[in-house]
Amino acid sequence: MSSLRTFLNTPLAVGSRTIDARVVLAPMAGLGHVAMRQVIADFGLPGFLSMEMCNARAVPGENRHTSAVFRWQDTEQDRLVCQIFGGDPQVMALAAARIESEGLFGVDINMGCSVSAICSKGYGAALLRDPERAVNIVRTVRRAVRCPVMVKFRTGWDNSSALAVDLAKRFEDAGADLLTFHPRVAPDRRSRPPRWEQITDVVQAVSIPVLGNGDVRDAASCARMVHETGCAGVAIGRMAIARPWIFGELRGLYVPDESSFEQATLQLIARIWEHFSPERAIKIYKKAVLYIAANFVFGHALWPELTRGHDRLRMEENARRILGVRPQVASTPNAFLLTS
User: Fold this and answer.
1) Where are the chain's structural domains?
2) Which among 54, 82, 113, 231 is annotated as catalytic?
3) What tens digit of pLDDT does each residue of 26-85 get?
4) Is 231 a catalytic residue?
5) Which fold has domain 2-251?
6) Most buried by CB count within 10 Å: which residue of 53, 128, 144, 270?
């Protein structure tokens, strides 16, 4: 654990900038909102935070104070990455320029989302079927900004790592400063284990940092990914929703105990209602607390109880009543709930 902690707390250069930790929050639609990021930060910051993925066409005209996703607190600005999705290089470049003008840490280009509503438009993982356009997007965005440019991508649409390796090289040549690689085929919605050996293939193909992503749930799995793949760092997504203290724990900034789940849930309620209207807050909370329920042996039964009701007061009462008695924590979080 001490060697892992030393590694994760070693600064990492990302283009012209540097992050102070090699474990970061991966971008997640519907989950990486401003309230969730604030809860995570309260327990211990990762190297950088990623907001929810944003439609590149919308970003130039967004109001950061009213936007559903393109919003942040000033305190997180210098370590916040905005992930954009789209298919037109010029549109992506305009979005990147807006992001840079706001003083955010950098831009991440989404080439990993496999949701049909995204892929049907030629965005997200669909770009992996059009390598020339994918590379052109990276090149055009790079020319538009000086801040770090990153790409998060998957293996492709079959199980071979050949495409991912080729694209990694071409992304580097096009000016990408960092790659986050999730070694699953695009149609796989986390139903099968990621193929970590493919992270090794990508790492060995480029000289820029590669972050491994996929099924890191604790210190043991984090250490194993780093050791087995040689990745420069680790990106954690859904486990950061299930256990918002995971970055603080991995970095040695926070020691969880049996009260952590209740504490984190109450903080999450407070932050969500602080940033969103009551109607929107209840929807956001019910989606997030599913991941907290995944930690428990009877998580399927706890989740409906945690979400019973329609207002903040009832959610707080639920959390204190159910989590205050310290329900049994499962040895491994429920994978089905984590993929919902």
Assistant:
1) 2-251, 260-338
2) 113
3) 999 999 999 999 999 999 999 999 999 999 999 999 999 999 899 999 999 999 999 999
4) no
5) TIM Barrel (3.20.20)
6) 53
